[in-house]
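Schema walkthrough. Field components (list of strings):
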Amino acid sequence: MVALTPISRKPVSFYVPVAAAAGAVAGLFVGTANGSGFLGIIIGAITMAALAFLLTQIIKNEKIGRWGTVIAFAIIGFFMAGIPAMLIGAAFGWFFGWFSFWLYEGRYRSKIEPYLTPAQVLWHFTFRVICGSIFIFLITPILVIMPLSFNAENFFTFTPEMLSFDPDGYSLKHYRDFFTSSDWQGAVWNSIKIAPAATFLSVSFGTLAAIGLSQPHVPFRRAIMAILISPMIVPLIISAAGMYFFYSRVGLQGTYVGVVLAHAALGIPFVIITVTATLVGFDRSLTRAAANMGANPVTTFFRVQMPLILPGVISGGLFAFITSFDEVVVVLFVGSAGQKTLPWQMFIGLREQISPTILAVATMLVGISICLLTVVELLRRRSERLRGMSPG
Amino acid sequence: MSDVNNSTTALEAERAEKEYSGPMLAADGTPLKRSLNKALRRQKLSALLLIAPLLIFVMVTFIAPIADMLFRSVENQIVSDTLPRTTTALEDWDAESGEIPQASVYKALYQDIFIAQERKLHTRLGSRLNYELTGASSLFRKSGRGVDDIGEVYQDQFEDLNAFWKSGENWNEVLGSDAWLSDIKGWKENSGTPQPEFEMRDGIAEIFPQTASYYTIFADFVQNEDEDNLYEEDPWSLIYSVFYDDLTGDTASSIANYSGPGAAEIAEAAAAAPSFETVEYKTAFAEIDKDWVATPIWETIRAYSPDFTNGYFLNSVDMQKSADGPDFRPENQRIYGTLFLRTLFMSMCITLSCILLGYPIGWILANLPARTANLLMILVLLPFWTSLLVRTSAWKVMLQTQGVVNDTLVWLGVVADDSRLALINNQTGTIIAMTHILLPFMILPLYSVMKTVPPSYLRAAKSLGATNWTAFWRVYFPQSVPGIGAGSILVFILSIGYYITPEIVGGTTGTFISNRIAYHISSSLNWGLAAALGAILLAVVLGLYYAYDKIVGIDNVKLGG
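Field assembly_structure (string):
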């Protein structure tokens, strides 16, 4: 985005107090951690005010000033509390160096509308900070478990060794547990056997039905759609209860086939939704053109329609796969010990004998989700590009 | 030249008018309308044919199980199946009189329980009735042990009278048909061929009607359920008591006409029977347990004797059947009302916090330049794609008393080390974890709605003199309401039926109705109640689903932005 507003340097009377206020907030936390919050506020405010003044009025060279701050803060941190504090100090230093020049040069205004009042500018940035904290809330749980999975102890929190980056504090032992435990390995194999079969069923039935549903004249379209989407809406515990009762009546409870059928039913709504969404952009005259040139419906489907809707089918399949791969409630009821899947094993681990091996498994699963997310995003952008829409 | 052409076209048109004065025709000569209709029908049919496999699949694997569950919530055949004679005899009993039932009911009860305990069904019935009346389970278990003693009174007297009555072989000689007797004697237990089916001797059923009918039940049980050789099997003590009834009952006069095998012994028994010591069934049951001579158990049996019951549903709304219709349970037994309210309340809290956290995110994603928004979108989609159990375990790890959140707070000095916050195994834990888990479902619809609101509207409002707040509240907010509606319903529907997360981080106070359903399915085995609770939850969810369909439309559900 281009600069909206011409910027100019700000007076000392503006940015030094702002820097002092920010310093006071930071000082509050460091101060309470070290005993006195009030002292922290005072020291923080004075330090930051002095720093801002020093950087902008005496050193003046931005590059030297910012690097100098980072190094100085890192050293202070190291002497206060060792390596972890050194890193925190460096981050603080980087932030305050940047912050001082950002205020001094008036860069904060360059990307917002020129007519905003100072209060609106303040709100603009407060709002950004709020949003930032919500994003942190969204992502932190996923980030926290990754380093914890390398914990050398059987603890679920950061040990002092880990915080001081002592190599002894880290180990791969939970990963080793995972790869040597027969329980976990059996669970992985069950998941690998069940999920693809369920995905295959839901994708093949679902794609056919989605093509049917996107024809121009479908009787009872709304009712059919409501039935096909219902597995996604009905609470899992109810689906699980119903399937447990019904499958025990027909002898499918506790069998591989039963679990696959149940998971396929749960995955169908995702396939239907993604494939019908792709078919909205499908040009029907292409099939007519193919028929015109002598292709039979089957050839038309595989040579013309399928390649074009393939991205939608693949992402629907990925959704169905992850549904089955992550599913635990239904398999708990419909399956028996012979179909214990990875989520089931995790569920047992969480409820009964909680062990950090779960964190190792969780970290690997996050890796898998990142891969799946990337594939789905790439497919979505490709199909939007094909349709001539901007990748949004 | 042109004249010639004109005249030819005119001629052709004239001819065409003469030939096709009827409806417009298609190329093959059928009327166009019919031809189009036919094409439309074919199109509809082919669409339906494409949908049919999936529809059948979903019907069988998903809709049928749900229907089965709904059926189970009202099904109640166990009482009338296990106690058929008692429930029939009880029909004449006047429950409101406050008196215990007449003697015939106790006799029927003896016969029912005897057969049930042989089939090991009485404990199942006991636990079923225990859901309605505490103590029924142990009452039936005790009675199952006690009924043997009742029958033995007659058995002992017959056996003392003549050792002939001791052995099963003699009974079979008397009651079995000649053809069956020769078959069974020739049958070897290990031969692999099925045991010849028992056949009653002609005429026995007229002279000894009850003995005949109960012996048939006994024979069926031994041959098909126990799979023993009937010929060598000694009869139940129940058979002796009905035999006594036959000897002293209405048909006693025709015994003299009997001339088949064992006629001498039968005549002897018929002569001795009237002087036998008899059993007062009512007293016998009173001795087993005095609950049998009180009205509650009889009221319960009677209330649950029909094949279908609303008892489970009454139970799931904290009510019970009583003499004068459905009534609320005593204050201290009401749990489901609280649980439903708690589920609703917590789902609303979760929805509300999702709106509060999701709205700013939706706004900023919709108003940032596309490139930055796409990058930030990944932060929303990554939790969405991450396994539910991974996120739940992350929260379990973070919220523990010795967990990351508490450690950080202690380090910052916000809370003291000895008063760490209880963030898990209570409602707080469930609300925090579920807000995080369901937040993407709020952000994605909000984002897609907010993206369609032109930013120029806000600028126009401000240029017309609106303050920031007015511009937002009167111009922007109303346009984003559909997004809030869609997101809220989605989050609410999902949270109201959540099971895994409350189970793991909810402890005892942070659990939902689904946890109770799971408990009834796997631990207490009260499937009917689980089904009834599930049916109520399902009704709520389907109502919301309908609202969602009306407001947003099922077709507009978007996945992953």
